[in-house]
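Lab meeting, action items carried over

1. Structure of the two-component assembly. Owner: GW. Status: complete.
Input record:
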Amino acid sequence: MTARTRDRFAALALGLAPALVVGLVAAIVVDVAWDGLGQIDRSFLTESPSQAGRSGGIASILAATGWVLLIGVGAALPVGLAAGVYLAEFGRTGLRTVRGALDLLAAVPSVVYGLFGLAFFCETLGLGWSVLSGGLTVAMMILPLFVRLCEAGLRAVPDDYRAAGLALGLPRWMLLRRVLLPQAAPSIAAALVLATGRVMAESAVFLFTAGASTRMPEGLLDPGRVLAVHVYLLAVEVPGGSARAAATALVLLAGILATTGAAAALPRLFLRNAHA
Amino acid sequence: MSAALPTNPTVEVRGVTVRYGRHVAVDRAEFTAPPGVITALVGPSGSGKTSVLHAINRLHELDRDVQVEGMIRVGSDDVRTLDDYTLRTRVGLIFQRPTPFPMSIRENVRFPLRGHGVARSELEGRVQAALVRAALWDEVKDRLDSAATALSGGQQQRLCLARALSLDPQVLLLDEPCAALDPQSTALVEETLRALVGRTTLLLVTHNLAQARRLATHLVCLWPAPGGGRVADEGAADRVFAQPATAELCDYFAGLTG
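Predicted assembly:
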């Protein structure tokens, strides 16, 4: 076998793996779309569920999902960004411990976060089953990922800028604000979008903390059912709910695909604007 | 806040050892850079030139593994006793690779000025003065708000020079500032450095012996050794080039080693 043939064989063999991955994604999308696409019309998106979700739409489900996204990402952003900046730029001692703790937190199953959220936010703080309890619990869950991605984004900024800033006697805070954070902004934005996708896909945390009410949440302390929980309950507990489950899953997939696409596109968009 | 440094201070390096972990880069270096002239630091790779230079404005503090022993005085002040922001304002540093910030040409010069609290009303005047001193004004005066990263390598390096000069440093450290530049850009940078003689103490690390001959009044030769780079000779540039203290230096200057 010649070297060229060997290379071609290797390329073909290795190419099968990504083809399999893409094929799996396509299979899921086609399967869900096959069952659910026919159920989606305007009223599906504008009406709240009725008859345990067999009819009506998912307006209240979308609203609850929006609430927990807003609360979860809104709470995780300042804490996660501050922690990421500390780890990348200011931290001197105990960094290994902090990173170890973050990695441990990232590995904790979401159902455990759910149990903690139920005990702490719902019961101890008295917030009950609510979008606020759900949002705060999911904020804890996405925090480790967000912190590490923010840290990685800052570390990817060339050290030349730090050295130039120090050589000019500039305060590190000023260099961070004017040079390092703007340079890391695409990575931080992508981290935010990825975290958003993770919140959208979560179900266990919200089953424990936000409840499963299909009513429209009208305040932070109202319970609400998020998309992933709606899919689960329709598919498992509501006879005749599978078509609506598939339709909801399709909306959820569209949301996750949109956020993932945004995560991939944001750095390119930032770069294009930076060079414009 | 530290005491003010005199204009044209002498830079004294006394028994300075620089360690990177267990590796000794510089071993008890001793030399004096006279005030207001260009002192060139020459020597083969690994002789510790850059390590000494970075020790002068304590830039090694960026790296936790680096240890510096010995004393460095700028004027009458031990650099260890100076507040680092003040020290680095007065002891500027130009790197081998141009490091413009990812902002406009104007902002690159304004940014450090604002960082050091220069009044808004003075900013434009000081930006122009710095760009003129770095021989860049004529080339960029019509596009000050363009991205600095769009400039050529030579222009970027002169922008970095302007950025450092905007703070009126009394000492300017130059770490092979022309290593990545073409001869034309090199000539412009050298012209700028000559213009600073008399008002600034300059320490120039260079591998380019011809450049050292062209610019330096004073010469410090570092030589690599297993226990760390050491000063092999120091003195008036004409004397050291004509009568180097060691046979190795003689061969180095003749281009037989290096």
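2. GW to write a short summary for the group page. Key points so far: The beta strands of chain B are 11-20, 23-33, 38-42, 66-74, 77-78, 91-94, 171-175, 201-205, 218-223, 230-236. The two ends of chain B are 44 Å apart (CA to CA).
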